[in-house]
Structure formats: C-alpha cells, structure tokens
Amino acid sequence: MASVGAAGKLVGRAIDFSRFLRMHFQPSDFVVVKMDVEGAEHRIIPKLIADGTIALVDELFVECHYFLWSWIAVVRNWTWPDCLHMYQGLRDRGIYAHEWA
C-alpha cells in the first residue's frame, strides 16, 4: 500500500514491471493489464516500449493521471491530450489500449 510523502510524492513498494512481464509471460500468452498507478504510468509505459516488453501485452486498461492542480506531483505537467497521444501510440503498436477511470 502506498502513502503520500513529502512534496505530494507517493511512497510505497514497487516492482520492475518489465521484468515481471518477462519472467511470467511469453508471446503466445494473451495478457490483459489493468494499470492504475497514480501517475507512474507516465514512466512505466515508455519503459515498456523502450525495452520491448510492451509486445507481451495484448490489451491495456490505463487510468491516465493528469491535471495541473493534482496532489500527485508527477502528473502536473500532463494534459488530457497527452493521455490521448499515449493511447494512440500504444494502439499504433498493436496494443488495445483503453482509458479506465
């Protein structure tokens, strides 16, 4: 479980999601991910793309966090159009990506 620390940052345990995917799944598996990670999606998804593990995900439901006045510091520079761009980039890679709120 996470808690809010100094400067509005979430403090909690984390895993390397790319490593988790590589260890537990292979390309023939059908993998569905529900991601609600309080702004960390803006770091996790680019890493999955960069290291290629996004190819292990067939369908992705993401709550994209954004808002200038958010209590989550990392999302203050993100806008709804940024989220739409992220979803489109995933779809362009063959990932069925959906907004989840």
Structure overview:
There is one protein chain. The chain contains 3 helices and 5 strands; from the N terminus they run ββαβαβαβ. The protein is α/β, with parallel strands linked by helices and 101 residues long. It has a 3-stranded parallel sheet with strand order 3-4-5. Strands 1-2 form a two-stranded antiparallel sheet. The longest helix has 13 residues, at 80-92.
Radius of gyration: 14 Å
Structural class: alpha/beta
Tell me the major beta sheet: 3 strands, parallel
Strand residues, percent: 15-25%
Residue stretches low in confidence (pLDDT < 50, at least 5 long) are none
Query: Could you give the distance between the termini?
Result: 20 Å
Query: Total strand count, please?
Result: 5
Secondary-structure element series: EEHEHEHE
Query: Portion of residues in helices?
Result: 25-40%
Shape: globular
| Count of helical stretches | 3
Average pLDDT confidence is: 86
Strand order, sheet with most strands: 3-4-5
TL;DR of this structure?
This protein has 101 residues and is an alpha/beta fold. Helices cover 32% and strands 16% of the residues.
What labels would you give this structure?
3-stranded parallel sheet, 3 helices, 101 residues, single chain, alpha/beta
